[in-house]
Amino acid sequence: MDTKLKKSKPWTAWLSFFMAVNIIGLLFLSSLGIFLYSEGSFDLLKAPFQDYQESRAFKERTGLYFSDLLDLLANSDLQNTGYQQAIQKRLNNEGSNLIYLAVNENTGLMLQSDNEVPTLLTSYTNPLLPAGYNYCWYFDGEKVRVFENGKQVDTRRLDSGYHRIIPHINIYTDNPDELANSRIVLGVRDDLQANPYGHSLYYRDQLLLSAIGWVSIGL
Fold first, then answer.
1. To which H or E segment does residue 183 belong?
2. Rounded Cα–Cα distance for residues 90 and 67 (Å)
3. If we measure between CA atoms, which residue out of 124, 112, 131, 132 comes closest to residue 185?
4. Contacts of 146 (CB under 8 A, 6+ apart)
5. How far apart are CA 98 and CA 91, in angstroms?
6. At what angle do helices 56-74 and 201-218 cross, to 10 degrees?
């Protein structure tokens, strides 16, 4: 019996070795694929190991929400349709994690979050956000700007994490002047919470990336 156990140990060792090599190889190929997909940027690779609200994944999620609102303001044929209802449901599923206000004075459309709403004063001032919301995207009728802790973020920098995320107005309308009387403010809560009344994608992504980070460290 002892002889059989001794003979089985080399096979066990080789099996463990090949499994380890395969795992490392898969991690390397996955990382390489993400690196190439992100055009040589390490932003996506860093996501599981950094604060979620500093990650590219968070910025992309916010960009998608903002683009949805911009699409509705720019295309009057989408207003009061199932498409609009689906967008508002997705946004409101974030609960207190997301507050927004979108206004098109030309068409009379106004969309706002179910909870607190950011305040718009004039087109020449920055939006006012409630306490606990220090990050927002703002469309002033001409361009999209991002604010964090009261300061505008230079999204044109390649290392800002916003490369190819900020929406271009020309994608949504052939005549940008039609949006001159439109405003959008979208703010995100500083400490993301689970929404007991819906499925927050912000909160889900935060948990998922955190879990991926811990698994990667364990491997």
1. strand 182-188
2. 13
3. 112
4. 136, 137, 138, 152, 153, 155, 162, 166
5. 7
6. 160
Sheet strands (E) in 7-157:
98-104, 109-112, 135-139, 144-148, 151-152
Quote the tokens at residue 99: 């507050």
- CA–CA distance, 10 with 162 (Å, rounded to integer): 51
Task: Find the helix packing angle between 56-74 and 82-92, rounded to 10°.
Answer: 150
Band the pLDDT of 20: cuts 50, 70, 90. low
Distance CA 41, CA 47 (A): 12
CA distance 34 to 42: 9
Q: Which two tokens stand for residue 34?
A: 């993400």
Write out pLDDT tens, residues 154-171.
999 988 889 889 998 888
Q: Are 95 and 197 in contact (CB under 8 A)?
A: yes
Angstrom distance (rounded) from CA 64 to CA 171: 14
Express each pLDDT in 62-95 by its tens digit: 999 999 999 999 988 888 788 999 999 999 999 9
130's CB contacts (< 8 A; 6+ apart) are 99, 116, 118, 187
Nearest in space to 140 (alpha carbons), one of 97, 181, 83, 176: 181
Task: For the chain, give every domain's residue range.
Answer: 1-37, 49-211
